[in-house]
Amino acid sequence: MPELVVENIHLKYGAIEVLKGASFAVEKGQIAALLGPSGSGKTTLLRTVAGLERAYKGRVSVSGKQVFDGDRKLDLPAEKRGLGFVFQSYALWPNRTVFDNVAYGLRLRKVADAEVRRKVGDVLEVLGLGHLHTRYPSQLSGGQQQRVAIARSLAYDPAVLLLDEPLSNLDAKLRDEARAFLKELITREERAAVIVTHDQIEALAIADTIVLLNGGVIAQEGSPEDLYNRPRTLFTADFIGNNVRLTGKVVAAGDGFATLDCGGLRVTGRMGQPKRPGEEATAICRMDRLALAGAGEPDTVEMHRATSMFLGEKWEHVYRLGDHSLRVLTEGAVASDTSPIRIPRESVWVF
Amino acid sequence: MTILKKPAIGRAFWAVIAMAMPVAGLAQIPEGYPAEYADILAVAEAEGSVVIYANTEHAAVEAILADFQKAFPKIRADYIEIKAADLFSRVSSEAAADALKADVVWSSAMDLQYQMVEDGVAAEYASPEKGAIPEWASYGDRIYGTTYEPVVMVYNSKVVADDQMPRTHAGLASWLTENRDTMKGKVATYDPERSGLGFFAVNEDAKHSDDLWPLVTAFGAVDTKFYTATGTMLEKISAGEHAIGYNIVGPYAYLRAERDPNVKVVVPQDFTVVLSRLAIVTEQARHPNAARVFLDYLLSHRGQSVIGNAAHLFAIRPDVEGKATIAGLTAEHGDRLKPVAIGPHLLDAIQPMERLAFFRKWADALKAGK
Amino acid sequence: MRSDFWRNNIVLLTALFILAPVGLIVWQSFLTDAFFSARARPTADAYSFVLSDPGFRDALKNTIILSVGMVVIAVPLGSLLAFLMVRTDMPGRKWIEPAIFLPLFMSPMVLAFGYIVSIGPSGFWSVWWQQTIGVPFWNVYSMPMLVLVVALTHVPHVYIYVATALRTVPSDLEEAARVAGGSPLTVALRVTLPLVWPSIAVSAVLVAFLGFELFGLPYVLGDQDGRLVLATYLYKFNTLLGRPAYQLMAVVVIFIMLATLPLVMLQRRMLRSAQRYSTIGGKATRAHLVPFGPWKWVALAGVLVWLYAVVLLPLSGVALRSLVTTWGPLVSIRDVLTFDNYHKLAELPLIRRSIVNTLLLAFIGGFASLCVYVLIGLASHRSQARGTRALDFLVLLPRAMPGIVAGLVVFWIFLFVPVLKPWVSSLVAMWVAYTLVWLPFGLRLVSNSLGQVGRELEEAAHVTGAGQARVARDVILPLAKHGLLAAWLLAFLLYAREYSTGIFLMGQGNEVMGTMLVSLWNGGNIDVASSLAVVNTLVIAGGIALALRLGVRLDA
After folding, report:
1. Which of C123, C151, C521, C492 is nearest to C314 (CA)?
2. Which end of chain B is more exposed for a tag (fewer CB within 10 A), N or C?
3. In CATH, which of 2.30.30.100, 3.90.700.10, 3.40.50.300, 3.40.50.360 is domain A4-234?
4. Which residue positions in chain C have pLDDT lower than 50?
5. Residue C516 near residue C534 (C-beta atoms within 8 A)
6. Subunit partners of chain A (3 or more CB pairs within 8 A)
């Protein structure tokens, strides 16, 4: 039985339907990422799970216990759900020290003082904050604040940890570190975690399962690899990865593949849904799979080089054909002005 | 904030206590009172306090309360000062709720005081001092006049020379008309619409003489200012902002004149309306005997001496000597003094239709002068 | 979020607290006599009487003129003052600040009387003017003067709103504009003004609204010419028909309510959008001041002139009056100078009691009222329930009731509701009336400071396991502490100057200074009244100074 089960959540703000039946589940020791563009309802969904928003339909259970059931009018308040929550802003209480922030949950649970000291000490140690007990949040760096927020949500041993964009307030370098740290921590502590993010790289890196939301419904759910390699909808294909989007007419279809003519640029890709010649269709091409074609390679298009940039490790070139432009990475500089560009059909999806 | 018992229960309770006590030696009953008065006094002292709602200003009443305390040290006088109209609101509301706190209501609004008798708020009590005050000054053993306050004119002698100041209503009217330019904005009186006392006094004027109406027209001619409070008027007369105040209640005027030699008082020589502060003992009184003792004190020779000579409220007992007394005033002004007798006719003054008719007449007379 | 039970109860209680008095007034307005009187019959005559009374139309006209005049004068001046105080390097700001708040908390009666003594026809400033310059060009009792006095004394109301908003505008926006070549004036007009525009608009509506419930200043200054505004017109019915005509007063109160409600609602609307604005900037960092060059002295002179007009003029009048037996052009001050008035003050035991009571009621009662407001504030805090939103609207109703009417109605309720009866004319009833009268004001302050606590800070506590009450105790209240302290101080100052609400609730031993002042003065004992007024002002000034010393911000 998964630690957290969320089924068919519906939620309205006034007349606007924000969540239209979202479901997902997380096992112990696993991380699920709620991913989606802004306005997709991912934070709302997380807050609904926590009991901070009120859904009107659906079910939520934590460690096998129902905490919300729209049909039975069961709706435990946030404080009775026993979850950990890390806010995007960290929401550390500015009038309390690091120690008191972290100890709060334990004190609410009437844990004996000695035990509070031990547990808080442990969790702060684990998070590398052992020397900061008496500091106030305003005296901490962003990374430290984030870890205090995590420590606070872990201190009272919640089975499920909810994190709302926990990394978005950190600078790029810290973010990479924190991401690895978080993943390791959750696996080791055996919590079930749900992390909200709008950053697909972060989601791909950290999550065991990605729940991709679009307009209040789940567009696709699966392992990161699944979503990357087997998108089932145009939205998923387009949202995951760094893509070029081409629209055109289907000129040939069969064998699961279709070929599109996009104003002179021909591209072939896997069909996400059946297409017949003559239909309008959209092709999503993974940018990082584009390459200069060697002789005789399939799926190539002759294009004109507009500009080149040296990025340190690699070169990036912009190739043009008609209105279309593609970015291609190479190891070395390129001399010729026109080259055949390979757009491998395994990395193209047609919808 | 004590929880009050039903008065009847309270009364019975105190009566029992009083009877349980030896009567003799408790307190000295005032001279000339019947022997039974010892009982009243004993119960009153057991009641311990008397609650008075009144509109007499604290500073003036301080002397009276202090002397009462001296005379009856075991009865505490709780004095609550409220403006006349608000006093009526408060008493009638509390009485309707059967929660009247006042044992004595003492107010200069004669009409509203009589309304309380009419409404059954006042208890019947024949004061042993009744015979000592003029006959017109009490009614049906329920309401008693305690003071004898002439309604006077006041002027600032630095603005109006003593020999110029008119001494009669008609004289004032013609003098104002003659001096309408220099007296513009210099005359002050009550606004009868916004001051209950102001209406009452000027309405009495109208009853005594038709001279009032030419005077009102003269008021219009000199752009008279109309006030709600005596204090403001006297202050501005004293400062010279106004020269003449018409229908000022005597005690206030004399008090002010005493402190400021520029302020002079004129007791009109054609007729002078005399008002009285009326006291009632309430039917719902929690301390009915203490209330009687307080009322009797107000009417007693001792109390009246204080009222006349210390509080300057003008004693109503003819046997009290001094300047601020009925005796002093009568010696000087004789039968020009027109005291307002106490009786049901007081209610005429608070008939809405009559008042509205009066105001129309008033407004017309004012306009005629402009 | 979920345990709505206690919320609903508080909302219900509050609604009852407000609707009972309002309901009583509505009922009274449809009767022929006092509601408790056997003579009372149902009728709508009171409405036709008031509406057909030309006096009512005059009062309404005067009220509207005052209201509009206040907006036109007080809003620009208040905004300018706020800009000078918060954003420029005008000298002396630190000293000026406490003085700015004084007119807010001085009893309007005292203010008005002070004006009469200082610039009335016999006032000592007028006399001085006459002797050195010529015939004074003003008449303190005229309508334009009333508008001016009322407007100038309401400048602090505008100041509070605009200064608060200005403090949250990041100064880098102004600096950017100055770097781009704008003069201080252009920057103020083009950059700063648009940013605080919502707050200015809110304060304009507030001032217009306050214009409708004005009482003290027109009561004293308009008295002699019978120039009435709605609130003073209402009192005419205390005496006009002989017995107090409650039904007519009730009609006027209902009319004031109806007339001011749209204004109040407009203000709520604006306030909501203003808050949206101000949270963008977040808490202000140390603002960099606009250097004003030589103009700063001009600005200072302007502010001093205003302070002179609203503080020094009336205060000097009252203070002088307290040291003399009489005044005016006919006496030489030296002849009448005396300290007697203060001696008399010390002699009357009652006065001492009233000072103690005032301090008690203001300090402890103010705190107790604050607790009530906090409770109501917490109940409606972040709630979307329909009941609590209705409450939002309801709490504004008492604002339209003049103090004495509110006092009378609370008195009636205590009198005629059996469980409350034992408490009538106790300090408790007085406190209830004060709490009711200042509910809209206090609640707004409280919910503002509660609203400043970050939503996520509360949610963090919820998720950690704290219930509604714990969140309030552990997070909201500690973090809103400063705003609540300021609210307490305001309650203290407002209660200390209040004079009309307690008239019916006074009992033996619970006299308060404000009420004493009015009765002393009406009774003609102006000597003592003015020395008491000086003491009252000193108490209030002391309160303000102490608060500023303790770091309480009145405009936060």
Report:
1. C123
2. C
3. 3.40.50.300
4. 1-2, 276-286, 556
5. no
6. C
For residue range A82-113, what is the model confidence (pLDDT) as tens digits? Answer: 899 999 888 899 889 999 999 999 999 999 99
CATH topology of domain B149-274+347-369: D-Maltodextrin-Binding Protein; domain 2 (3.40.190)
Q: Mean pLDDT over all residues of chain A?
A: 89
- DSSP assignment letter at B315: B
Could you report the per-residue pLDDT of B66-79, keeping only the tens digit for each?
Answer: 999 999 999 999 99
Flag whether A touches B (3+ CB pairs, 8 A cutoff).
Answer: no
Q: What is the pLDDT of residue C151?
A: 95
Q: Where are the alpha helices (DSSP H) in chain A?
A: 42-50, 98-108, 113-126, 142-154, 172-189, 200-206, 224-229, 234-239
Question: Is the predicted ipTM greater than 0.85, yes or no?
Answer: yes
Q: Cα dist. C79→A140, B256, C32, C303, C305 in Å?
A: 39, 46, 48, 12, 16
For chain A, which residues make up each domain, given as ranges?
4-234, 242-350
A vs C, Cβ pairs < 8 A, gives 77
Can you tell me the distance from the alpha carbon of B101 to that of C429, in angstroms, rounded to the nearest whole number?
15
Q: Which two tokens stand for residue C43?
A: 């009728």
Q: What is the pLDDT of residues C307-356, one digit of tens each?
A: 999 999 999 999 998 998 888 877 787 778 888 888 888 887 778 888 88
Q: Which residues pair with A258 in a beta bridge?
A: A253, A269
Give A96-128 as a DSSP string: S-HHHHHHHHHHHTT--HHHHHHHHHHHHHHTT
The answer, yes or no, to whether residue B114 has pLDDT greater than 90, is yes
- CATH ID of B7-147+276-339, from 3.30.2130.30, 3.90.550.10, 3.40.190.10, 3.40.50.300: 3.40.190.10
Residues of A numbered 147-186 whose beta carbons fall under 8 angstroms of chain C's beta carbons: which are they?
152-153, 156, 162
Q: Tell me the pLDDT band of B124, cut-offs 50, 70 and 90.
A: very high
